[in-house]
Amino acid sequence: MRKLTVLIMVLVTVMSFAYVKNVILLIGDGMGINHVYLTQLLEGQPLAMTKTPCIGLITTYSANSWVTDSAAAGTALATGFKTNNRMIGLLPSGENVPTLAEVLKKYGVKIGLVVTCRITHATPASFYGHVEDRDMENELAEQLADSDFDVIFGGGYRHFFPESVKGSKRTDDKDLIALMKGQGYVYVSKKSELETVDEGKVIGLFAPSHLSPASNRPEEQPMLYEMVNKALQLLSRDGEPFFLMVEGSQIDWEAHDNDVYGVWKETVEFDKAVKVALEFAEKNPDTLVVITADHETGGLSISSGNQMIEINKLRQYKMNTETFLSRFSIDKKEEFINAARNYYGIDISDEEYRFLLSKKNSLNSSEFVKEFGRFLSGKSLVGWTTFDHTGMPVPVFSFGPGAENFTGWFDNTEIPRIIARLMGYPLTYPIYKEPVTVNN
Fold first, then answer.
1. Which residues does the record give as Zn(2+) binding sites (predicted)?
2. Which of the listed CATH numbers 3.10.20.30, 3.30.70.60, 3.40.720.10, 3.30.460.10 matches domain 17-299+388-423?
3. 50 annotated ligand binder
4. Could you give the 3-state DSSP secondary structure of residue 55?
5. Where in the chain are the domains?
6. Cβ-contact 394, 60 below 8 angstroms
7. Residue 121, annotated ligand binder?
8. Is 247 annotated as a binding residue?
C-alpha cells in the first residue's frame, strides 16, 4: 500500500510538471492588480490577461528591502535568486549567478527579448547582465553583444555606437552594432525595416533611449504587440524550442507620475502583446504563457476616500501629463486652462490654478509632472499613496501546459524555477535542491 501511495505521488508530481517546449514570459513593469482592474474598467471589457484560466499572487521584496527596484526584481524573475536593489545578475555578495535565459541558451533554446525601454534597462538586462549597479548600461550593452541571444527588440542604441557618433553615451570607440553584425545579426532601427526581416538573428533598436509612450509613438517606432508578433515568427520559424521575455516597460513610469491616462494606455499596449502571445499559444499547445509584474508602482487605488472613481470622466482624458506639460505652459493661464478642458474635460478654478502655479515654481520639471498627474487623478477620484514603488504582491496570469503551477501565493523567485522544471532542462547552477528530469 505504501509503495502504491509513493507511486501515485510521483505520478502526480510528474503530471504537474508537464513538458513545455516554448515559454513566453510577459512582465508589466510596475503593474499591480489595480492597474489591471482600472484599465479593464476604462476599456469596458475584460483584458486578455484576465481571461487566462490560472491566476496567482507573488511577493516582490528584494534581499535588502521590502520595496524592490526593477533590478533586484528582474534578477529574481530571471535567476531565481534575491539580490540587493540596483544589482543585476549578482548575489548580494557579488557572486555572479547565471540567468535562466543564459542556461537555456547553452542547451540550444532560442532566446528573445522584447521591450519598450532601453534594452540595457534594468528588467531586460536582468536576463543577460551581471553588474553591481543598474546604471552601468555601457557594460550591459557589451554583455548583451556577447549573449548570442536570437531576437533583441527595444530602444537604447546610444549605448551601442562609439562615442564619436552623435548622441552616443559610450566613452570609448567600441561599435557594438558592427560587432554584432560580424556575429551574423541583422540590425534594424525602423519599423519599416523590421517588417522586412524574416529569418536569422536580429537586433532592433528603434530609439536612442526609450521608445516613445504608447499614446504618442511615432510611425517608425513599432508598438509592443508588433515586435512580439515578429519575434514569435522568427523564434518559431525552425520549430526549435524558445524562451521569449516581453516587458511592457512604461506602465511603471506613468505610475511614478501618478498619470492615470498614461497607465491606462500603457497597460492596453501591454495587453495587446499578451493577446498576441495567447493566440500563438492556442495554435501551439506546447507553449506556456506567464504574465506578471516586477513590482507595483504608485499604490494605485480605485477610490479616493470613500468615493468611487468616475470612469466616464477618465474616459475623456486624451493625453499623458508629461506630453501635455511639454506642449502647454502653465505660465500662459488661459491657454493652459483651455487645453486642460479640451484634453481632460475638466475645469480649473482660479484657486486650483494658483495652487498648480505655485507647485510649478517650487518644483523641478519632473516633480511638477507628478504633481499635475496627481491633480488630474484627483479630478476623477483616483487615489495614489506614493510616487514610488510599493511592496504590494502582484498578479500572475498563466495559460498553457503547466499553467496550474503558477496559482496560489508564492515568491517571485519561484517563477524561473518553475519554468525551468516545466521545460525540462538541467541547470548548471544551484537554483534547485532536487535534480531536474530531462525530457527526451
1. 29, 252, 256, 294-295, 389
2. 3.40.720.10
3. no
4. strand
5. 17-299+388-423, 318-379
6. yes
7. yes
8. yes
Residue 368 to residue 386: CA distance in whole angstroms: 14
Query: Which of the following is catalytic: 16, 65, 70, 301?
Result: 70
The grid cell for 13 is 508530481
Residues 2, 8: Cα–Cα separation, whole Å: 10
Rounded to an integer, what distance in angstroms lies between the CA atom of residue 439 and that of residue 371?
54
pLDDT one-digit tens code per residue, 142-183? 999 999 999 999 999 999 999 999 999 999 999 999 999 999
Q: Is 294 annotated as a binding residue?
A: yes
3-state SS, 252-294, equals HHHHHCCCHHHHHHHHHHHHHHHHHHHHHHHHCCCEEEEEECC
What is the amino acid identity at position 353?
Y
Extract the residue ranges of the chain whose pLDDT is less than 70.
1-18, 306, 426-440
- What is d(CA 37, CA 440) in angstroms, rounded to the nearest whole number? 41
Residues 205 and 193: their CA atoms lie apart, in Å, by: 11
Q: Which amino acid is at 333?
A: K
- Between CA 137 and CA 101 the distance in angstroms is 19
- 286 among the known binding-site residues? no
| Cell numbers placing 207 | 530609439
> Per the structure block, which three cell numbers stand in for 374?
496627481
Query: CA 419, CA 431: separation in Å to the nearest integer?
Result: 12
- Which one, of 193, 196, 203, lies nearest residue 153 by Cα? 203
358 included as an active-site residue: no
User: Torsion angle, CA of 411/412/417/421, rounded to 10 degrees?
Assistant: 80
> What's this model's pTM, rounded to 2 decimal places?
0.92
> CB of 152 within 8 A of CB of 194?
no
